[in-house]
Structure prediction request, 633 residues.
Amino acid sequence: MFEASDTRRSLKILCGALVFTLGAQSIRFLFGSLAWYLRDTVGVGVLDLVPISLAPFVLAFVFPALSRFLTVRGATWLGVLLLVFGRVVNQVSTSPAVDLWSSGIAAWAFIGVLPLLLSMGRQTLVGGVILGLAIDTAIRGVGLGLDLAYQPGAMAVGAVVAMGVLTLYALWACPVAETEGVLWGTGWKMIAFGPFLFAQFLILQSQGWTAEVIGADGAQTQLRIALLNVVALLILARFEGARPVAAVSAVVLAVALMLAETPGTAFDILSVLAVPAAAVVWSSLVPDTYEGGVGASATYLTIGSTLLVVIGLAYYVVLDMNLGFTQSQVRVAVAVILGVVGLLGALGEQAVRPGATHLSWAFAAVASVLPLLGMLGANDTRAADLATASYPVRVMSFNIHSAYGVDGTMDLEAVARAIEDSEPDIVGLQEVSRGQLISGVADQLFWLANRLGYPYAEFFGTTDPTFGNAILSRYPIVSITETHLPKVGTPLRRGYLGAMIQGPERLLFISTHLQHVNDPKAHDADPEGDLYPVHREQIETILSEWGGVTPAVLVGDFNARPGWRQLEELLAAGWVDSWAEAGRGDGFTSNAANPEHRIDYVFHTDDLVAVDAGVIQSRASDHFPVVVDLQRR
Prediction:
């Protein structure tokens, strides 16, 4: 039998978990809206995005300030109501502008409510965040790696409304202490909340990052992370307050994040240990609450949440401009911050462990099972029958722009339809995200492969393990080759992904993406001259990796127009432009809003011939896909 205190404590944890889940979804959506809608569609400059991005987090201090006039409970209710309202509007809206504002309001309210949750007791924030991560990740499992905010349909809306109603009920049932918070001298460690969230969103809870680095299947990885979240809850209940466990956890977490791009056994093992270790570290960062008001809680958590934006900006802005550091260095800095602050938290005064509640683990068990529902739909694959495989082979090249269309909205279903309608046998994709924080942390490769029924899929993360080139195939992929292209002083790292495919015969299929700009000032006046020094070296690498293998197909976004020197060098090496053989129309692929240039290509070796080539008019990306039928010469 549950005691009343046990049930009440469980409801507090559930309230914190649901607030966290709704808030985390809103923050991630906001990041995507800022990066793809406000920057790409509206045209706001990268540096101008900085104050806009920081505003909802810095201004969140208004909710704790309002508690002086509305009482802590009143301010908490205001914040949670705005969070639920913003999240529901975001889910039902089809307007990118409304999406931006609604996700911004929800994120603002979420950050403002966090310190007020401590008035319900420390476990509301500690257990709520960890259980919230479990629920949040499990929901993405249901969506096959797609965040709930991007899942269309009535079921998704119903899920958000249900979470909102349950959040309000849990808040109504939970008592709030009007003067409870953390002390100024002990609460400072909560500024690590932002680095903690960054590590969770980008790496530890990322199906795409983990699957790519350890070489695992997406569904298996999703289930693995979900089960590890349950383990994290159990370990937190058993070892919370134990200094040695907290100290070891801080070291394990820091090392795991430092080695997060290291393929093989090291990160495979460390990532298993890091998920429960992160839960213990988070617990060590949140001190016991006292009757001292919410000032310290609000200050430290607001600073910590703002750090999430600062780190996120630092991690992604370096892809647009040289700032003297790299993405890897930002990740290592996050690891150091969490390791050092975690060790200090372990060595300091440990919070009193309140003990586990049976109801909490029931919630956790449900969260761990949810991904199985999503994986039930991950089996509809349509492999080609090799016994009857024959030419022509239909291939496609598609820069999907992280599935953000012309209007600045992410719509993977629109991308899927553009591919599905052409029925290609092999697809080369560029700008694919497997968990970018600025792209809704969606595992787009896993989702597309399952939605379209491609049994064979390969991905090469070129900037980090979450963003790069991909290949989908109905024919078996026998082997792959991955190579980074020379950066030649540019900030964005590009790549070459080659797959040996067994179709009507063995065929080398290459998906690549060349640099889009070198010197922004020189580019407008002479784009060919600006890009030629970079493209020349990148094409040399492609030709070296190709090695003259035939038959072969080379597809991608070359960011070069017909007749440019770099493409002439490619043709001189033996590649044939499919469009020149069989193209219909002008072949313009960019920009999809107002196509003026042909920069996406399908090349092939001269033992093949293009019998048909066309451009698909789709606004699912800022590029049109190119489809070509290839026949043996």
Summary: The chain has a mean pLDDT of 92. DSSP finds 20 helices and 14 strands in the chain. The longest strand covers residues 456-464.
